[in-house]
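$ fold --in a.seq
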Amino acid sequence: MNPKGLRRLAPRERIAAIADGGSLAPVNAALEAPRPSPHLARWGIAAQDDDGVVVARAKIHGEPVLIAAQDERFLRGSAGANHADALGKLFTLARVERPAAVVIIAASGGVRLHEANPAEAALARSLASLLALRAAQVPVLSLCVADTFGGASVLACAAGRTAMTAGARLGVSGPAVIETAHGRSEVDASDAEGVAALFGAQSRSDAGCVDLVDDDADAVRDWIEAGMSEPAPFTATVQSMQGRLGARLAAMPEARLHSPATQPSPTDLPLASAPLYAGARPVDEAAWLWRGDDRPMWTTRAIEGTLGPREAHGLSAAILAHLADGGATEARTLWIIGDSQGHEASRRAEALCLSQYLAQLCAVVALARSEGVRVRGALTAIGHSAAFFATALQADEVYALKGSRVVAMEPAAIARVLGLPAAQIDALVESDPLVGHPVRQFARWGAIAAILPDARALRALMNGESAVAGG
């Protein structure tokens, strides 16, 4: 066992191991105060004062840094609402203080399913804050020292540089999720060697997705120092990543960068969202982005199936080309439609490292925002899992139709995590603020600006024909 390895240490010890001697200190009184989750007692779970994430300030090779270390020992490091909020506050503070770097020591199973709705909303806000920090030219470095899945994997990949130590795994969908969805012929969750070949640190490094760093405090310190000393403009890093992801996608057998081959008409769009494109025209070959004929307003195309690497890359390319060009002077608005059947949970998506494609889409949106584009989100049908997290929830404000639903936690996952009978699960799915699917339940946590009666009302809002009070 490496005496200087991070994996065997508790989160606060991990921070101390990489900090200069005597430099470790609290970030501030607010972030040092206890933040136990108020939602866990309901499920018979004792809350933890730090809610599974430790934050601190320190120096590394003499340079000031802010550090967050997730605790995989507490509910698999899952990001509850308070956990995610602490990350967001750290990123926001860093924009003011401008340390040499912000370092995330990642070890999380993703959004905490016991408090799915508030947790997903809070982690989405934290992701947007991380990218705003990068846009402000503060280096963000993420090191995965244990399993990092779900929304936490997107957060980790949204850093300017991402690394993994041996034994860590990274992905949006875990092996058990893919096996459940497609069977053992797709992924055998019991095959440790096969799982490592798909999600493991060595495989991710060999594919060019992450840096591979020895599980040694000195090696980690050197990696952080290199990340601090080699800052790159946000625009350049986003454009470079787009090219790298495109090359990776093109090299995958059967993959195509853009689909369908011909531009769809509005009647080809999903029924619930089709009215939103009236009077608009597609501006890219694959019709990922549409522009209104009479105003500087663009609308992303709703995802008809799942959001995978191809779809995320296509959306990113269209937004980069038309809204993140750095040259426009007029006021512009981007509407991100959050409807989909969820993120693509497949071997192919994980082989391509879907986490990076979703993080890149969020980074492209952040780049457009940094260039003055107003970003708004809309939900007309179903906002599902990481697909909703990486699309409409990255907007400054989100509007939803009355009958829409947010699926942060599938009924099967509720059953698995909470161990409740089917009848009780059915009731929770419709009526519970923490895990319920009707958009009114998700809206209770401040993530929805307003719920509108129909597509006509949403279209009027998009056209600036009506004002809607938040709520």
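$ fold --in b.seq
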Amino acid sequence: MKSKPIIETKWKEIQLKEITILITKGTTPTTIGMNFSQEGINFIKSESVTKQGTINSKKFAFIDESTHKTLRRSHILENDLLMSIAGMFLGKVAVVPSTFIPANTNQALAIIRLNNEVADCHFIGYFLRNPSFNTYMNNLVAQSAQPNLNLTQIGELPIQIPPLEKQKQMGKILSDLEKLIISFCNSWLSL
């Protein structure tokens, strides 16, 4: 009789950079002599990311295809995490849905691209949005007049994760619950 494989269930504390393939930030088109446009490629700014972990498309700016190609560093992919890293609303985090792609961002948002072989974007997004963790991040820069987290600080953020399967289970439960709450609130508001 074969023995069942041991499934890892312990949580471990790691630094965020250990589960990412990219941590970067964008560029504002005007800093490189380019402009915003009236329509085109989505340009997601920090004010588009809500404290609830959603992205408000009504607050998008736009850039043309040429500017998008020039700003390769700030290309956003589906399931990237966007984290506000500058200003008074530090630490807002959202998962990018496929409906907003193609898109770019500026230097006020970090782009965190996870290694999906070891990390679930929804679980990590919820972990980073946790109020206690948000307080921790804000305390890192409490002495600054203009709060900012740099990319090194983001990579060194200590996080706790369970094995990937548990992350996926928890991320799905939390995501489904959040959708249910949003649906309920929207239907209640339409009464």
